[in-house]
Every structure is written in C-alpha cells, then in structure tokens.
Fold:
Amino acid sequence: MSQDQQSSTERNPEIDTDFDAVVVGAGFAGMYMLHCLRKLGLSARVYEAGGDVGGTWYWNRYPGARVDLESMQYSYSFSEELDQEWQWTEKYAPQPEILAYANHVADRFDLRPDIHFDTKVTTTAFNETTNRWSVETDRGDRVTAKYCVMAVGCLSAANKPAFEGLDDFDGAVYHTGEWPHEGVDFTGKRVGVIGTGSSAIQAVPMIAQQASQLTVFQRTATYAVPAWNEKLDPEFERSVKADYPAFRAKMRARPTGVYFPFNVEPALESTHEERIAQYEESWARGGLPFLGAYGDLLFDKAANDTAADFARNKIRGIVKDPAIADMLCPENIFGCKRLCVDSGYYETFNEPHVKLVDVSKKPIERFTKKGIVTDGAEYEFDAVVCATGFDAMTGSYDKIHITGRNGLTLAEKWVAGPRTYLGLSTVGFPNLFLVTGPGSPSVLANMLPSIEQHVDWMMDCIAHIEDIGADSIEPKLAYEDDWVEHVNEVSQVSLRSTCSSWYVGTNIAGRPRVFMPYIGGFPIYVQRCNQVMTSGYTGFDIEGGADSDTTPKIRWTEKWHVELDMEVMTPAMIAAGKIPII
Ligand code: N01
Structure:
C-alpha cells in the first residue's frame, strides 16, 4: 500500500537513535541507496519531505508531465527480474506511470518500513569527536549516523519568483513542480502560464484543452522538437528484454547514458540540401536525439546556426499567424538551454483562445487582485501557473543547514559556486555523499544510470571503509580544486556554457554563474570514478582503520566498467574535449 493511501502519518519522533546511514530523499536515488545499504547489512533511515516515494515524479504532477527520454532506457538496471516484469505502455512514459513504477519498486523491495515520509531534514552536522552526523527533522527526530547521503535531486527546489502583489491575487496560483495531488480542473477558466521551459511546453497544450482563455507569458522563446509519442511497440520491447543487459551496456557507453542514432560528422561538411535531409530525418525521429543530427552542433556556432534556422522554419511552418510565429522563434543557440520535447506546443498558438505575451523587454510588473500587469496592460485570470523552474543543483542543499568541520556550512562553502570532488563528496564534510551532486554528469545524462552509478560507487566505498574499520573518508583539497577546474574547463568547450540557463544558475537572482554539471561525458566520468577506486581512493583521505593499504574490493561498480563508444567518441573528439553531449 502506498503511503498516500495510508490513513495517517502520525508517528513519534526518533530521539538519539543511531544508524549506519541516514539518507535524505526517497526519489529514485534514495530508494536505490536504501536497497543497497540493506544488502550491505547496514541500518538506514530515509527521510522524505513528500508523502510517498518518487521524488521528481511525486511532485511534478502537472498536466502533460512525462519523461523526455525513451521509457525503456529510463529505469533501474540493478534487477533483471524488475526489468523483465515491468511494462511501459508508451514510448515516453507519462508521470503517473513513472510514479507507479517507483511505487512498484518500493513494494517489490519492501522499502517503505525504513522511510519516514512527510518529514523534512532541517539540519545535519558533523561531530568531529565522534565522527558521526547528527540529523534533525521538522518532525522532531534527532538521530545520528556514520554516513549521511544526500539524495535530494537536482531539480527539486521550486523557483518561485517573488512577484509583487502575488498575495493580492484572488485566483489560484500553482507551481508545476508542486502540483496538487487531486489535479486541477481548468474547465472554463481564464488561465495564465508564466514560463516557456520544458514544464510549460508540456503543460500548455493540455491546459489549453480545458481553459476558456489561456495566456502564456514568454521571457525567452524555446526550441522544442516533437516527441512523436506513441504506444510502446511490443516488438521493440521484446527485443530489448531479450537481452536488457546488452542494451544497458550500449546506453552506458554513450556520453549521455542514452542510446540513439548519432551522426558524428560536422554539419558544415554537408551541403545545404544534405543538411536539410539530415535534419528532416532527425525531426521525424523526434526528441532530444535531434541534437545528434551532427556531431558539432553544441561546439560550433556556425554549425548550430544551421540547426537553429531549421527549427525556426519548422515553427513558422506550424504557427499560422506570422507575428506570433516570429515571437515564438528563439534567437539564442539551439539546445543551449535544455532542449524541449513537445507534443503540440507550437500548434496550441493557432487556437483562437490562446494568447502569447512577450515579457522579454517589459517584465511582469506585478500581480493585482484580478491578474497580472505587464507593459501597462492588465490580464485577468482565474488561475496562474508558474512554470518557472527550479533552483537547480544546489537549491535542494540550501534548504538544509549542513555543517561540516570547523562549523563551516555547505552554503558558506559553496557561496561562489558548488565545489566537489567528482560531484560525489566535498572537502570538510567527511562521510557525506552527494548522489548526482554538482560536478557529476547528473542532469546532462540519463538520470537513472547517473544515480545507479553514483550509488554503486558509494556502496563500494562504504563497504571498503567498513572492511578496514575506518572512521571516515573525505576528499583532499588539491584534488577537489583540480576537479572543479576541470569541470569548468570542459564546460568552456561547449556552447552550452555561453547562455543563461539553470545549468549555470543564472535563473536565480544572486547565484554565481558557474556551469554546475560535468559535461565531459558519462563513460569518461565513470572511468575516472573507477580509477579513483581501483587505485585505492586516490584524492581521498581515509581516517582510522587497521589497514588502509587493503586493496579495495570492487563489488557494486563492476558493471560500470564499460568501453567508450568509439562510434560516437572518436579519439580526436576526446582529445579536444568535444564529447557530444545532448
Ligand atoms: O524550468 P525552466 P522547467 N518572469 O527553468 C521562465 C527538467 N524537466 O520547469 O528562460 C517570466 O527550464 C523562464 O524564462 P527564462 C528539464 O531538465 C524535464 O520548465 O529564464 N518568466 C523559463 O521560460 C528542464 O530543463 C521534463 O527567460 C520567468 C521558465 O520560466 C528542467 O526540468 C519536464 C520568470 C522556466 O523554465 C526545468 O524545466 C519538465 C519570470 N520572473 C522539466 N522566471 C521532461 O520532459 C522564470 N521564468 C522530463
């Protein structure tokens, strides 16, 4: 039975209980972490702010929410039985189905008894005398643990701009990332949507089906490639399931942890006609793989311009009113902000009850009792949807008061941008593990393999610490500094570092501009993590323990020893740092 169905979440606070590990978050990362900790025979408590498992997929219930990677590639790989028994129904699974999958995993592996739901971790502090983390929650829990695992997600802290007068508005206000569980009926309502990122692109066509009037406030026009979503082809499903491990291995060898056709050729080496044919083929295939139409689209501005022109022509071909089409045509680099995958987004603006308002030059001034004012005009609404995104990568850490050695908080340490070694750990915070933390491929790769690879690495690491009876593990400053510099240096090669987006934190006022995820490619990153481990945790200090020279055993991470896919990553590209990330 899911926690949502349980009658009560009343419980007594846990006081002074000591665990081997505390895990913050019961999304896909926290769930898998718990499963592995148990396999290692360690005690663990997971705290989850939501009422049930699922993380992102628990909160983002807005109409139209679905994954933008193919479902068959967006799932755990740790259990062959799970792989075989679970059936996706669509090429791109909708949110309720992904949440059902998360629930199925929680049931199948009996995870819930060790998870406390509706509980926010408020503080975690490292005690240098006992080498243990003290953890407190908003439900009065006060526990300790040797290991503290942050499985808080990369896009979990909703960005809610402080619009003037918001409290005066008589209508309802929703954020896509905190959608009401009972759903929202917009039938006959006048609705405003703020934002045109991935969430809005999915929600707008659905809301338009119900609303009597829909007004979209656009600050930056967005490129979207059609999903062409469809029922999952049973023949394709059978062929994947016939050898799922081989399919997973192909995915892992790709820079994004996703397998799809990729053309490494440079765009400008084709003629105009050849390029159009190539783009048409990629458009017909749809989705994020469009960025794989040529190998240099995110490295060479002139190459990128050809894709951008093609996409703008598509928008002009879809949207009937040329003035609206012009407004919808982005001028920035194609795929610089995260590329969107749509189902009828541009078409929605052909509907007579749908309006587009450009707020790029004249921002939203304020909310009023009746609606929103911009450029001197008032737009009246019954409801407003903020599809304004997230305080990405670091926002969820900021919600918790995390204190390491010498009383330094993580927020203080990261004030000029996140600093980590491999995105897994950070100096001054021993035994603190960051699942898909900043500085790891995370959001630039398929999140499920990103999560599993991190958790598997952490499990081998924790097992080693336990094997040798050590107290703690913590990165060395010089190695962390080198990694931060490397993450930054690699990002400069990509056009992605040149525009404003949540990848660089510029969507949040006051955040320093830092490219946060690691763009060097998933398999190259995995190789580095493996080397660090097999060489005896290079770059880490291990304190305590009888025999720190014991060769680490490789248990969980064994499956991550994959070859680079040379079809996609040629030696020249690797040398130039031009790994084709989509
Ligand atoms: O958020 P966003 P999102 N006034 O930051 C605008 C993943 N995801 O929730 O671009 C007016 O992309 C802002 O404008 P601008 C995916 O990785 C995946 O849509 O800053 N507008 C922008 O248009 C994605 O990238 C799926 O100028 C304001 C929008 O709000 C990530 O989550 C689905 C504003 C925010 O777009 C975030 O996507 C959904 C203001 N004051 C999300 N403030 C899948 O398909 C912000 N904006 C799996």
Q: What stands out?
A: The two ends are 38 Å apart (CA to CA).
